[in-house]
Amino acid sequence: MSIGLVLDLDGTLVDSHEGRAQAWVEALAENGYRDVGFGEVRALLGLPPDALLLRTIGFGEDSAIGARIRDRYHHNFRVRYLPRMMPFLHGPELLYRFRSIEARIVVVSPDKPDALESLLDLLNARPLIKYAVTADRAPGIKTHRDLVRAAVERLGGGTTLMLADAPHDVEAARQNGVPVVALASGGFPRAALRGATSIYEDASALFSAFDHSPFMGGGLARTA
Q: What fold does the segment set 4-15+86-223 form as a domain?
C-alpha cells in the first residue's frame, strides 16, 4: 500500500510566510490591534485562524472582531501578496517525486479554497492533489491538531507521514501519532523542529536525497 502524506505547503514548498504575516499584521492594525508585531504573527503561521486570533488578541473567529480580522486577512493576502508568491526551488519537482511513488496526498491549509487553488497552480499541482483539509471547510477545526487529525482520517489508515516546516506542525503530528519530516525553509531554528524524524534544509535538499529519505524507508533522525 502506498504511503499517506499530510502536506503543508506554506514555508515548505511555497515561499509565502513573509506575505502571510504581513497580511495578518495589516488586518490586525486596520481593526485597532497595532501592537501585534510581525514576528509574533510569523511564529504562528500555519495555525487555523481561530487559534492565531486567540493567541494574538484573545478573541477567536466566532467573535465579531475576530471574524472581521480574519476576513480582512484573507482579502489582504489574496489581493496584495498571493500574486507575488513563488515556489521554492524543486518544490514542484518534489511533488511529482511523490507522485512517482503513488503517495496519497492530503494538503492541510488555513486558506480559503480559492487561495489554496492559487498556491497549487504555482506548483502545477492541481492534477496531483485530490484532497485538502482547510479550517473553514471541515467542521470543528479550531487547532492545528484538529487540522492534522482531519487529514489523517481522510487518508484512512496505512503508513502516514507529514511534510511541514514549523514547530506547531511537529507538535500536531506528534499528537496524532504521525512522523513528520521537517524542512528548515520556513525560517524556524532547527532546534525548534526537534521531534521531527528528519530535518532537511529545504525542498531541494529533500528532492536530492529523496531515495534515502523516510518516504522511501530511509533512516530516522536524518539531517541534510
A: Rossmann fold (3.40.50)
CATH number for the domain whose boundaries are 17-83: 1.10.150
Strands 104-109 and 86-87: unpaired
Written as nine digits, the cell of 67 is 471574524
Q: Which residues of the chain form CATH 3.40.50.1000? A: 4-15+86-223
Pairing mode, strands 86-87 and 14-15: antiparallel
Q: What does each of the 224 residues of the chain score in pLDDT, given as a tens digit?
A: 689 999 999 999 999 999 999 999 999 999 999 999 999 999 999 888 988 999 999 999 999 999 999 999 999 999 999 999 999 999 999 999 999 999 999 999 877 788 888 899 999 998 888 899 887 666 667 788 998 999 999 998 889 999 999 999 999 999 999 999 999 999 999 999 999 999 999 999 999 999 999 999 864 433 33
Residue whose cell numbers read 473553514: 136
Distance CA 217, CA 137 (A): 33
Tell whether the torsion through CA atoms of 47, 81, 56 and 64 is positive or negative.
negative
CATH 1.10.150 residue spans of the chain = 17-83
Q: What is the pTM of this model?
A: 0.90
Instruction: Give start and end residues of each alpha helix (H) in the chain.
Output: 17-30, 38-42, 49-56, 64-76, 91-100, 113-122, 144-155, 167-175, 203-208
Under 8 Å CB-to-CB from 71, ≥6 apart: which residues?
A: none
